[in-house]
């Protein structure tokens, strides 16, 4: 009999379909004293990686410049038997040149603002490329769960 952990684990296809369907990403970095800094933001997916951009002076970028370790989480479900999530631990690659940030900002814009014209997407991404740093999450460990797979059995 498979373990409960194996029963609720998502396949790679299920993981990425789930991630693509979410808007918010919880992001954890490490403060200077080792305590976690946790925040939530919108994200995109580019070339198989989770990406986001944020102000270069933000605490998460300050933390990642000092220590590139990062953890991110996407989750869903209001009842225990409906809980689903994907937690990724890895490291962050940082890009701060506006022309580099633009690529990642465009991915975030396209994912989270359906219905914009190409010109509107480009304008938004250009604005989001100023004074910002793009973060590419390079996954080293992925853990997933989907309690719906248990069919209400606990």
Order of helices and strands: HHEEEEHEEHHE
Number of domains: 1
Shape: globular
Rounded mean pLDDT is 94
What's the helical proportion of residues?
A: 25-40%
The fraction of residues in strands falls at: 35-45%
CATH class: Mainly Beta
The strands making up the biggest β-sheet line up spatially as 2-1-5-6-7-4-3
Structure, explained:
This protein has about 150 residues and is an alpha+beta fold. The chain has one domain (about 5-145): Pnp Oxidase, Chain A (Roll), CATH 2.30.110.10. It has five helices and seven strands; from the N terminus they run H-H-E-E-E-E-H-E-E-H-H-E. It has helices at about 5-10, 10-20, 60-65, 100-110, 120-125; strands spanning about 25-30, 35-40, 45, 50-55, 70-75, 85-95, 130-145. A hairpin with a 2-residue loop joins strand 3 (about 45) and strand 4 (about 50-55). The protein is globular and about 55 Å long. It starts with a helix and ends in an 8-residue tail after the last strand.
Would you spell out the secondary-structure blueprint of this structure?
Layout: H1 4-8, H2 12-20, E1 24-30, E2 36-42, E3 44-46, E4 49-55, H3 59-66, E5 69-76, E6 84-95, H4 98-112, H5 118-127, E7 132-146
Antiparallel strand pairs: 1-2, 1-5, 3-4, 4-7, 5-6, 6-7
Short description:
With 154 residues, this protein is an alpha+beta fold.
